[in-house]
Design goal:
Blueprint lengths: L1 E4 L6 H10 L4 E4 L8 H6 L7 E4 L2 E4 L1 H11 L11 H26 L11 H22 L13 H16 L8 H11 L2 H10 L6
Parallel strand pairs: 1-2
Antiparallel strand pairs: 1-3, 3-4
Bound molecules: glutathione.
The site of glutathione (GSH) has 12 residues, from loops.
Length: 208
């Protein structure tokens, strides 16, 4: 397996999941510019990471790759409880993280993609920040009294929420200070040997 990733980007979730699975894989760092080259676009026409190559086939889209890896490596036990409710929880958090939280960062980190006039950027960032604070508040309340997002044990969703929480820790003025339960969750994840190894490998470090 070969994972193409941008250091610290959303591909970090797949990187952690591969480390947890424990099968052999290669992690290949790319730059944003490289994701737009003809070679990369042939692999993923969306010009984005994560892209996971397995014996000549390329898998893309974070939540789809996570579900694939859950089924491919059941012995890693990184999926939901095998019940309709368990599946619902997995899909619910994929929707929240991939559909709400991830796109919520775009106007915060790249307001120029939303308005060419620089004078509009502070207002765009402020609105994005308010929305992100609201969304992190939801995740924070969910983690009140829980060590894991779903199933009462480590799953792919822990890796996915951790990834976006690392963006907040690195990009918000108060890091995760407004979210005590999330901060505790991230602190625990930072002590996980697999997570620590992946962060070191990607050259990413941060305080929650
Ligand atoms: N919906 C895709 C989004 C992937 C995505 O946005 N990846 C970002 C990194 S977090 C990327 O590769 N961006 C390249 C760019 O902005 O040019 C997924 O969930 O996998």
């Amino acid at each position: 397996m070969k994972l193409y990733y941008l250091p610290g980007a959303c591909s970090l979730a797949i990187h952690i999941v591969l480390e947890w699975i424990g099968e052999a894989y290669e992690a290949v760092a790319v730059t944003r510019e490289q994701t737009k080259t003809p070679e990369f676009l042939k692999m993923n026409p969306a010009g984005a990471v994560p892209a996971l190559e397995i014996t000549g086939r390329v898998f893309t889209q974070n939540s789809a790759i996570q579900k694939y890896l859950i089924e491919k490596y059941p012995q890693a036990n990184l999926g939901p409880d095998p019940t309709p409710e368990g599946n619902y929880e997995l899909n619910h958090w994929h929707g929240f993280l991939g559909g709400d939280l991830h796109p919520g960062f775009r106007p915060y980190f790249a307001p120029q993609r939303f308005h060419p006039d620089e004078s509009a950027h502070p207002a765009i960032r402020a609105a994005a920040f308010a929305n992100l604070q609201r969304l992190y508040g939801i995740a924070d309340q969910h983690l009140n009294g829980r060590d894991h997002v779903i199933a009462g044990r480590r799953t792919v969703i822990d890796a996915y929420l951790f990834t976006f929480s690392s963006w907040a820790a690195r990009g918000f003025p108060n890091r995760l200070g407004d979210f005590p339960h999330l901060k505790r969750f991230v602190g625990n994840m930072l002590e996980d040997p697999g997570v620590a190894s992946v962060l070191a490998n990607e050259g990413v470090s941060f305080e929650p």
